């Protein structure tokens, strides 16, 4: 009986030791996971490459010339900032449509001066060569300039670098795929004139009518993209940006003063940068308008749905948390 008792105690000790080791391993694993998540949330931009791109090349003279700064007085009415990554196959259609609209407006109204800033986000194809040869050479660098980044920094980083070298009183960001009908700019412009106060204003193009009607010919997306959109929209509305139906449309208009304060505050450089821009705009109590625009799905997207979704969900947690903790600061002009 005594030996049986010893064996029983020894077995209990082994079981307890195994349970203790398992609990310790789980605690270490949990702490590691929490540390990793905290690191991912807290880490800032991985290097700021903006200083490499303050110059552009004039293909007519082959000279390198400096960009102006958004802190300078505006010398154009409108700047159109177009981020582009491996867009050799799609960008020509968008540029042709955009230039035709801008030239038409200027013929009617000579005060409607404009420029386009195409920001090449480290493309590996011939996007830069195509734009330089077919557009910049033809129209000149006073109208079209290419801001070529050496490294891919993400859509938000590319837009930021384009905005900060713009010359326009108003700055429009537009996607290189031409998914939004460019002539809808006039809707955003009209809204801007109605809401702008103290030179501050932001107008968001909205595809809400397509998201509300999932059977629309323009919005036939895979089911998982529709689900991710719904979840993302709910999180954004509850955590970051209230009352904006479509934060992610790539068609947004900013007054120059608003763009200066918003994009010098920007930390998110990937797909969720729009959320941070609108979050800061609301925190600064800038007037924000939203206008329905015509939009259609364009084939050839470089977006990795799973990877981008994970990055975006992480970023929308970072935005309210890090600003409220004071880890990220608001830029004040």
Automatic annotation (TrEMBL):
Enzyme Commission no: 2.4.1.117
Statement: the UniProt record of this protein carries the keyword Hydrolase: no
GO biological process: protein N-linked glycosylation
Cell location: Endoplasmic reticulum membrane
CDD domains tied to this protein: DPG_synthase
GO molecular function, one term: dolichyl-phosphate beta-glucosyltransferase activity
InterPro entries per UniProt: DPG_synthase (IPR035518), Glyco_trans_2-like (IPR001173), Nucleotide-diphossugar_trans (IPR029044)
Major localization class: endoplasmic reticulum
Membrane topology term: Single-pass membrane protein
Assigned keywords, A-Z: Endoplasmic reticulum, Glycosyltransferase, Membrane, Signal-anchor, Transferase, Transmembrane, Transmembrane helix
TM region positions: 20-42
Gene Ontology, cellular component aspect: endoplasmic reticulum membrane
Biochemical pathway: Protein modification; protein glycosylation
Residue ranges of every copy of the Glycosyltransferase 2-like domain listed in the record: 79-262
Membrane found in the keyword field: yes
Stated family: Belongs to the glycosyltransferase 2 family.
Name this polypeptide is given: dolichyl-phosphate beta-glucosyltransferase
Provenance organism: Vannella robusta
Taxonomic lineage from the root: Eukaryota, Amoebozoa, Discosea, Flabellinia, Vannellidae
């Amino acid at each position: 009986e005594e030996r049986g008792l010893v064996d029983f105690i020894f077995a209990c000790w082994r079981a307890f030791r195994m349970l203790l080791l398992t609990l310790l391993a789980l605690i270490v694993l949990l702490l590691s996971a929490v540390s990793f998540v905290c690191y991912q949330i807290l880490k800032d931009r991985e290097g700021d490459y903006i200083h490499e791109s303050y110059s552009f090349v004039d293909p007519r003279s082959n000279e390198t010339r400096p960009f102006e700064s958004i802190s300078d007085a505006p010398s154009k009415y409108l700047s159109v900032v177009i981020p582009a990554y491996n867009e050799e196959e799609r960008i020509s259609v968008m540029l042709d449509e955009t230039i035709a609209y801008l030239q038409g407006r200027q013929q009617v109204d000579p005060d409607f001066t404009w420029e386009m800033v195409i920001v090449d986000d480290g493309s590996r194809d011939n996007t830069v060569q195509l734009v330089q040869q077919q557009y910049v050479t033809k129209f000149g660098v006073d109208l079209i300039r290419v801001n070529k980044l050496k490294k891919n920094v993400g859509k938000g980083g590319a837009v930021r670098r384009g905005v900060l070298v713009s010359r326009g009183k108003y700055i429009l960001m537009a996607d290189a795929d031409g998914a939004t009908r460019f002539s809808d700019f006039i809707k955003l412009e009209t809204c801007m004139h109605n809401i702008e106060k103290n030179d501050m204003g932001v107008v968001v193009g909205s595809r809400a009518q397509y998201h509300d009607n999932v059977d629309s010919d323009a919005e036939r997306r895979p089911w998982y993209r529709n689900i991710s959109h719904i979840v993302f929209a709910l999180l954004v509305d509850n955590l970051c940006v209230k009352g904006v139906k479509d934060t992610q449309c790539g068609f947004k208009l900013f007054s120059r003063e608003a763009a200066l304060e918003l994009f010098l505050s920007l930390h998110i450089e990937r797909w969720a940068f729009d959320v941070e821009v609108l979050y800061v705009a609301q925190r600064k109590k800038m007037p924000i308008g939203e206008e329905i625009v015509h939009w259609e799905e364009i084939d050839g997207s470089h977006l990795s749905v799973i990877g981008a979704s994970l990055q975006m969900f992480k970023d929308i947690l970072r935005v309210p948390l890090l600003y409220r903790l004071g880890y990220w600061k608001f830029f004040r002009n």
